[in-house]
From TrEMBL:
Membrane-crossing segments per the record: none
Protein name as annotated: Sulfofructosephosphate aldolase
EC class (word): lyase
Family as reported in the entry's similarity comment: Belongs to the aldolase LacD family.
Function: Cleaves 6-deoxy-6-sulfo-D-fructose 1-phosphate (SFP) to form dihydroxyacetone phosphate (DHAP) and 3-sulfolactaldehyde (SLA).
Active site: K193
The enzyme's E.C. designation: 4.1.2.57
UniProt GO molecular function: lyase activity
Gene that specifies this protein: yihT
Organism listed in the record: Scandinavium lactucae
Amino acid sequence: MTQYTLKDLTRPSGGFAMLAVDQREAMRFMFSAAGVKGPVTDQQLTDFKVSAAKTLSPFASAILVDQQFCYRQVVEQQAVDKRCATIVAADKFIPGNGIPVDSVIIDKSIDPQAVKRDGAKALKLLVLWRSDEDPQQRLQMVDEFNRLCHQNGLLSIIEPVVRPPRCGDKFDREQAILDAAKELGNSGADLYKVEMPLYGKGSQQELLVAAQKLNEQIPIPWVILSSGVDEKLFPRAVRIAMQAGASGFLAGRAVWASVVGLPDTGLMLSDVCAPKLQRLGEIVDEMMARR
């Protein structure tokens, strides 16, 4: 059985420059916020995701897609560039308390062998981390996910995202990110996708110290995501995180959020988003060359 390695997801430099288009209801909200009139349809989301895959995958080392809106269409339309690996989101979002993602479980409708036959090389699992929820349940889910991946020759990517506790109002995001990394950083996954400390704000030194603390807690390769980080700050965030020990990024919003809901999506993705992704890839290569 073919067993993929992290090199299958990297640029020749060994760094990760990966694009995410697996946002689901969050992307629908982004279309609405951009002023799209009327209900945002599933087809609008699918069209945007497939267009993004076609236009941007030549500049990405891997692309993360979701089964709900675009995986099948991306495969059938051969939307992903041959040099770009495909990662499939294997998380099922459960809404509640007025938010689209209140809890997460492994999506049992994902067939690892089928996605592997279609060319996918990795699966990704979102893990919501709350200080007042049972760590054993999180660890058991991650362990089950890792086994699912590895028994089928696929790479395992986990994405712990911190949330305020369900009870009480005290929430230290920065400490929570560190606590999540301490708990899950050595849980058997191949790659750890993490939120950028301080939302990428603050001085270079403040960010570097925060990212170094994170690096101390994650003994496996790790990359940053861009949710919550201003797209203008994201290139610097990638540079600083990599200086601290990260190996690149797996990001969506910092690349394509600015063109959501605009006319001529294909043209905007090509003219506005592709140069951003190219530049981020150059930063990854530059920082890997310094190692």
